[in-house]
């Protein structure tokens, strides 16, 4: 029964995708006997955590049952004061009968202290239930904490004959309308979206969310010599934008110029700076030079590749796929294949 209720907690946790970063997604299910009496998830960054929302969802007549109930939580209850008080303290205060959890929290501010508090209060704790599923759900959070960098997703669309642009980099709409909508949904789910200099110049992308409701990500562009035209959509001031270069650091409106060191590799510096800004995930949308730079440096976690039935015959070749096949599905006329890096 543990796994059944934990799967439900994971489903609830996923409802927070795109809304809780840099916090992890967390779900909580409270069970008495074989009946769910409370459910909750972390809905918005800065707002109540999953355990508190689950307890708030209880009917008044069910509150006395907590002492004989189990809380199924997808991540170790927090033990420190942040924007919300500690959830471990709340479970102790409510005298919850038992706690079952997917994963220990890798955040050093928690790092087992939540479980220690619960056990010290006499509350039995079981961990590791659907642990791998919990890590997959919060891959961004675990990468951020354990690898000290954002989770990096490489995305591109290629033709059946392996091109992602026409000759000389001429822009070509390769993926279909359903794939485009899906990409806009992905943009709402990640903290930042990134392109290289050539893509910014040639495609003049907006890198915002227009086809679905949701938040706009932080825009990132590498512009080493600050040669990109100030009139590009990227610099229209409509959303936060980071412009990494080798010349200067300054902020004008929503655009921040960040100077990197010329004698060190760019991508590790960039990712380290993003981590300092609490950017937990980056969707890299090209072009080929930037995508291959991430691949060659081994600084990626996931590839999402659309393959359309289109044939170009010539043009800019798509990157070579790496990693382990994770998923394959049809999106309209396109095939979407997802690969994951296994360290």
From TrEMBL:
<feature type="binding site">
    <location>
        <position position="203"/>
    </location>
    <ligand>
        <name>substrate</name>
    </ligand>
</feature>
<keyword id="KW-0862">Zinc</keyword>
<dbReference type="GO" id="GO:0008835">
    <property type="term" value="F:diaminohydroxyphosphoribosylaminopyrimidine deaminase activity"/>
</dbReference>
<feature type="binding site">
    <location>
        <position position="187"/>
    </location>
    <ligand>
        <name>substrate</name>
    </ligand>
</feature>
<dbReference type="Pfam" id="PF00383">
    <property type="entry name" value="dCMP_cyt_deam_1"/>
</dbReference>
<comment type="function">
    <text>Converts 2,5-diamino-6-(ribosylamino)-4(3h)-pyrimidinone 5'-phosphate into 5-amino-6-(ribosylamino)-2,4(1h,3h)-pyrimidinedione 5'-phosphate.</text>
</comment>
<feature type="binding site">
    <location>
        <position position="285"/>
    </location>
    <ligand>
        <name>substrate</name>
    </ligand>
</feature>
<keyword id="KW-0511">Multifunctional enzyme</keyword>
<dbReference type="InterPro" id="IPR016193">
    <property type="entry name" value="Cytidine_deaminase-like"/>
</dbReference>
<dbReference type="GO" id="GO:0008270">
    <property type="term" value="F:zinc ion binding"/>
</dbReference>
<keyword id="KW-0378">Hydrolase</keyword>
<protein>
    <recommendedName>
        <fullName>Riboflavin biosynthesis protein RibD</fullName>
        <ecNumber>3.5.4.26</ecNumber>
        <ecNumber>1.1.1.193</ecNumber>
    </recommendedName>
</protein>
<feature type="binding site">
    <location>
        <position position="157"/>
    </location>
    <ligand>
        <name>NADP(+)</name>
    </ligand>
</feature>
<keyword id="KW-0686">Riboflavin biosynthesis</keyword>
<dbReference type="InterPro" id="IPR004794">
    <property type="entry name" value="Eubact_RibD"/>
</dbReference>
<comment type="pathway">
    <text>Cofactor biosynthesis; riboflavin biosynthesis; 5-amino-6-(D-ribitylamino)uracil from GTP: step 2/4.</text>
</comment>
<dbReference type="InterPro" id="IPR002125">
    <property type="entry name" value="CMP_dCMP_dom"/>
</dbReference>
<dbReference type="GO" id="GO:0008703">
    <property type="term" value="F:5-amino-6-(5-phosphoribosylamino)uracil reductase activity"/>
</dbReference>
<feature type="active site" description="Proton donor">
    <location>
        <position position="51"/>
    </location>
</feature>
<keyword id="KW-0479">Metal-binding</keyword>
<comment type="pathway">
    <text>Cofactor biosynthesis; riboflavin biosynthesis; 5-amino-6-(D-ribitylamino)uracil from GTP: step 3/4.</text>
</comment>
<feature type="binding site">
    <location>
        <begin position="287"/>
        <end position="293"/>
    </location>
    <ligand>
        <name>NADP(+)</name>
    </ligand>
</feature>
<feature type="binding site">
    <location>
        <position position="210"/>
    </location>
    <ligand>
        <name>substrate</name>
    </ligand>
</feature>
<feature type="binding site">
    <location>
        <position position="87"/>
    </location>
    <ligand>
        <name>Zn(2+)</name>
    </ligand>
</feature>
<keyword id="KW-0521">NADP</keyword>
<dbReference type="GO" id="GO:0009231">
    <property type="term" value="P:riboflavin biosynthetic process"/>
</dbReference>
<comment type="similarity">
    <text>In the C-terminal section; belongs to the HTP reductase family.</text>
</comment>
<comment type="similarity">
    <text>In the N-terminal section; belongs to the cytidine and deoxycytidylate deaminase family.</text>
</comment>
<feature type="binding site">
    <location>
        <position position="78"/>
    </location>
    <ligand>
        <name>Zn(2+)</name>
    </ligand>
</feature>
<dbReference type="InterPro" id="IPR016192">
    <property type="entry name" value="APOBEC/CMP_deaminase_Zn-bd"/>
</dbReference>
<dbReference type="InterPro" id="IPR050765">
    <property type="entry name" value="Riboflavin_Biosynth_HTPR"/>
</dbReference>
<feature type="domain" description="CMP/dCMP-type deaminase">
    <location>
        <begin position="1"/>
        <end position="126"/>
    </location>
</feature>
<feature type="binding site">
    <location>
        <position position="207"/>
    </location>
    <ligand>
        <name>substrate</name>
    </ligand>
</feature>
<keyword id="KW-0560">Oxidoreductase</keyword>
<dbReference type="InterPro" id="IPR002734">
    <property type="entry name" value="RibDG_C"/>
</dbReference>
<dbReference type="InterPro" id="IPR024072">
    <property type="entry name" value="DHFR-like_dom_sf"/>
</dbReference>
<dbReference type="Pfam" id="PF01872">
    <property type="entry name" value="RibD_C"/>
</dbReference>
<feature type="binding site">
    <location>
        <position position="49"/>
    </location>
    <ligand>
        <name>Zn(2+)</name>
    </ligand>
</feature>
<feature type="binding site">
    <location>
        <position position="199"/>
    </location>
    <ligand>
        <name>NADP(+)</name>
    </ligand>
</feature>
């Amino acid at each position: 029964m543990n796994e059944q209720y934990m799967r439900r907690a994971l489903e609830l946790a996923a409802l927070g995708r795109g809304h809780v970063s840099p916090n992890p997604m967390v779900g909580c299910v409270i069970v008495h006997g074989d009946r769910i009496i409370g459910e909750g998830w972390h809905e918005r960054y800065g707002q109540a955590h999953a355990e508190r929302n689950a307890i708030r969802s209880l009917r008044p007549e069910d509150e006395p049952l907590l002492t004989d109930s189990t809380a199924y939580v997808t991540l170790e209850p927090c033990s420190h004061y942040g924007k919300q008080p500690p959830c471990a303290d709340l479970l102790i205060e409510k005298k919850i009968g038992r706690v079952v959890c997917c994963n220990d929290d890798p955040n050093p501010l928690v790092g087992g202290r939540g479980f220690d508090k619960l056990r010290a209060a006499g509350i039995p704790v079981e961990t590791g239930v659907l642990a791998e599923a919990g890590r997959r759900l919060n891959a961004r959070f675990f990468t951020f904490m354990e690898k000290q960098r954002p989770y990096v997703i490489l995305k591109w669309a290629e033709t059946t004959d392996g091109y992602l642009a026409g000759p000389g980099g001429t822009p070509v709409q390769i993926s279909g309308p359903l794939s485009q909508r899906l990409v806009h949904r992905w943009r709402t789910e990640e903290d930042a979206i990134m392109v290289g200099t050539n893509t910014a110049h040639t495609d003049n992308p907006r890198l915002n969310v227009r086809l679905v409701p949701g938040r706009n990500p932080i825009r990132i562009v590498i512009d080493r010599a600050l040669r990109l035209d100030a009139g590009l959509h990227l610099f229209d001031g409509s959303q936060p934008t980071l412009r990494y270069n080798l010349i200067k650091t300054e902020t004008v409106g929503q655009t921040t110029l960040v100077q990197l060191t010329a004698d060190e590799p760019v991508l590790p510096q960039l990712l380290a700076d993003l981590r300092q800004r609490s950017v937990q995930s980056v969707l890299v949308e090209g072009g080929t030079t930037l995508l291959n730079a991430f691949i060659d440096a081994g600084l990626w976690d996931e590839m999402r590749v659309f393959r359309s039935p289109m044939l170009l015959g010539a043009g800019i070749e798509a990157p070579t796929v790496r990693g382990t096949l994770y998923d394959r599905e049809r999106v309209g006329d396109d095939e979407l294949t997802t690969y994951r890096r296994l360290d």
